[in-house]
């Protein structure tokens, strides 16, 4: 078929052209639907190639313009610096070659009956050529490999559609949380494991393989704080992905993560997402998760996940090969009690209340770090209200807290603490 473009076109926002283009193309168009994020990432890729900001040997841009409306674009992430893409995205046309095959691409937005936007890419191709039926996905892969907007940073993922496809994932870049491994009171061997994880991610080009850790331990021992540290330390060297509201489609996080190198998925309380197959979790959800971990095709996705009890995670998911390490935290050690207390307060009136009797009491109940943090917070308020607050008041409060949080578990549990 022939497509005649006789309208005035705008070339990358730099000026008008008045011309007629005849594209001699055949066959049914190859159609893709993406969310806005994927759609604009492909446009950014083509713009950067067209303006010779980046060079990709297998991709050549001949033409790039809009046939209706004004296409405004400040080139994104030029030379690694943040830029801005603004586009009315009205019938953007491009003539390009990928791996020696010539394509005519049309970018446009359709609205459905619910006034939702559908970001569409149609590709046609020249006579006697053999097109790549996954041309849209190939361009998206190149976009993530070569452009800067999502080569590093922290992303929250939300599943927004009815069809389980990465096209229905919404992304939001977030500021990585501030954390520091030196401020987490855990065993030295655990710190070494986490430092090795971060080092491998930062030096992915050297190792070219991922690490996958499962952190197992009671609530309040610092697992979530470790994940925050991983997020902060890795986000400047690759993509950190946090599944947020995935509605049973958590496995799509892996499909998304495979677009990037390196990438790490952070999953807090993994047992709540996948759990054990005999406890009502669907085979479909668990099976897709397991296949994403190793599957038939190798992937290079890092994982750091937490669970309050590794027994809650399906045995097939936690076997060697799917996770490189399962790190048991054990109890919060007494030797860290005063270090954590001094970290959280400089008030001598509070610090002096923690004598050997109080420390022995807390140790016998196997308190967690999270419990101590909350205890200091409460003590600051109680001393403000009651300047005569003494050790007997503290011991009374400790006993009440224990009963309040774990009364129904006293015969089975000998720990106190909060969920992270």
Describe this structure in words.
The protein has 420 residues and is an alpha/beta fold. The protein folds into three domains: 148 residues, no CATH class; 159 residues, P-loop containing nucleotide triphosphate hydrolases (Rossmann fold); 76 residues. The protein has a seven-stranded mixed sheet. The protein has a six-stranded antiparallel sheet with strand order 1-4-8-7-6-5, with helices on one face. Strands 2-3 form a two-stranded antiparallel sheet. A hairpin with a 5-residue loop joins β7 and β8. α9 packs across α12. It is elongated, with a radius of gyration of 27 Å.
Average pLDDT, rounded to a whole number, is 75
Which spans have pLDDT < 50 for at least 5 consecutive residues? 1-27, 69-89, 408-420
The major pleated sheet works out as: 7 strands, mixed
Helix content: 25-40%
CATH topology of the largest domain: Rossmann fold
Q: Which descriptors apply to this entry?
A:
single chain, 420 residues, alpha/beta, Rossmann fold, 13 helices, 32% helix, elongated, disordered N terminus, disordered C terminus
């Amino acid at each position: 078929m022939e497509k005649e473009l006789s309208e005035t076109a705008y070339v990358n926002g730099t000026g008008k052209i008045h011309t007629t283009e005849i594209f001699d193309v055949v066959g049914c168009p190859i159609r893709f639907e993406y969310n806005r994020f994927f759609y604009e990432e492909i446009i950014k890729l083509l713009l950067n190639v067209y303006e010779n900001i980046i060079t990709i040997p297998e991709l050549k841009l001949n033409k790039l313009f809009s046939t209706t409306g004004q296409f405004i674009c400040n080139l994104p992430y030029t030379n690694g610096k943040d830029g801005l893409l603004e586009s009315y995205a009205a019938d953007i046309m491009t003539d390009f070659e990928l791996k020696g095959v010539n394509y005519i691409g049309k970018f446009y937005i359709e609205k459905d009956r619910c006034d939702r936007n559908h970001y569409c890419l149609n590709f046609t191709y020249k006579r006697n050529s053999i097109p790549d039926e996954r041309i849209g996905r190939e361009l998206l892969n190149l976009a993530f490999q070569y452009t800067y907007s999502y080569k590093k940073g922290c992303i929250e993922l939300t599943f927004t559609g009815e069809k389980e496809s990465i096209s229905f994932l919404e992304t939001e870049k977030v500021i990585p949380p501030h954390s520091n491994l030196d401020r987490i009171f855990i065993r030295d061997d655990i710190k070494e494991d986490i430092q090795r994880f971060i080092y491998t991610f930062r030096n992915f080009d050297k190792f070219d393989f991922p690490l996958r850790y499962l952190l197992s331990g009671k609530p309040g021992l610092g697992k979530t704080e470790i994940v925050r540290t991983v997020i902060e330390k890795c986000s400047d060297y690759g993509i950190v992905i946090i599944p947020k509201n995935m509605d049973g489609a958590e496995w799509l996080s892996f499909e998304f993560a495979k677009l990037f190198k390196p990438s790490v998925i952070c999953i807090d309380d993994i047992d709540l997402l996948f759990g054990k197959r005999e406890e009502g979790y669907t085979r479909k959800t668990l099976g897709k998760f397991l296949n994403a971990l190793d599957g038939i095709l190798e992937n290079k996705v890092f994982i750091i996940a937490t669970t309050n009890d590794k027994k809650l995670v399906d045995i097939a998911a936690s076997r060697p090969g799917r996770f490189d390490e399962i790190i048991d935290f054990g109890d919060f050690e007494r030797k860290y009690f005063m270090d954590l207390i001094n970290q959280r307060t400089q008030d001598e009136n509070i610090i002096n209340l923690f004598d050997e009797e109080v420390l022995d009491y807390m140790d016998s109940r196997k308190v967690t770090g999270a419990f101590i943090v909350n205890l200091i917070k409460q003590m600051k308020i109680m001393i403000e209200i009651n300047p005569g607050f003494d050790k007997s008041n503290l011991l009374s409060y400790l006993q009440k807290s224990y009963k309040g949080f774990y009364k129904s578990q006293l015969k089975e549990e000998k720990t106190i603490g909060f969920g992270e």
